[in-house]
Amino acid sequence: MSERIDALVAGFPGASVEDSLGQAVVRLPRESMAAFAESARGAGFDTWIDLCGVDHLTRSPRFEVVVHLLSLEPPELLRILVGVPAEDPVVPTLTGVFAGANFFEREAFDLFGIEFEGHPDLTRILLPDEWVGHPLRKDAAVGSVPVQFKEANRAT
């Protein structure tokens, strides 16, 4: 692990770091997420890559927010994992640190129901506004929307 990552993690109680195939993976308590992202940006991880949600269903905490940041000089990738409990699926927004987080956070909200506290426009981005539920949750109903294929009625 790089000294830069170790120094970053040392400033955040409850944070831990591990190696995953040569990539630094930092696990954080959710209340440290925005402050850690800001410190990481100050330490050179200033390129936003992505953010996504994960539903582990039977684990606790059930959800996880995964953030990838990149440092170009020296080249290094950083993965941040934040556990989110099912009974209170709220984490702080990163839009104040990385403007690019905006649409990724809306997608995680739309598909998993993870709320990003302080987000400037936390609304659905992929599904219609009247959609009920979050389809990428593992307990979401499967096949509740009938699909009509264009070629289904043609005889061959």
Structure overview:
This protein has 156 residues and is α/β, with parallel strands linked by helices. The chain has helices spanning 3-10, 33-42, 101-112, and strands at residues 16-20, 23-28, 47-55, 63-72, 75-84, 90-92, 115-117. The strands form 2 sheets. The chain has a 5-stranded mixed beta sheet. A two-stranded parallel ribbon has the order 6-7. Strand 4 (63-72) and strand 5 (75-84) form a beta hairpin.
Topology record:
Blueprint: H1 3-10, E1 16-20, E2 23-28, H2 33-42, E3 47-55, E4 63-72, E5 75-84, E6 90-92, H3 101-112, E7 115-117
Parallel strand pairs: 2-5, 6-7
Antiparallel strand pairs: 1-2, 3-4, 4-5
- How many β-strand stretches? 7
Computed over alpha carbons, the radius of gyration is 18 Å
How are the strands ordered across the major sheet?
1-2-5-4-3
Helices and strands, in order, run as HEEHEEEEHE
Assess the beta-strand content as a share of residues.
25-35%
Distance between the termini: 61 Å
Q: How does the overall form come out from the CA principal axes?
A: elongated
> Portion of residues in helices?
10-25%
Runs in which pLDDT lies below 50 for 5 or more consecutive residues are none
Mean pLDDT, all residues: 93
Q: What structural class is derived from the secondary structure elements?
A: alpha/beta
Largest sheet: 5 strands, mixed
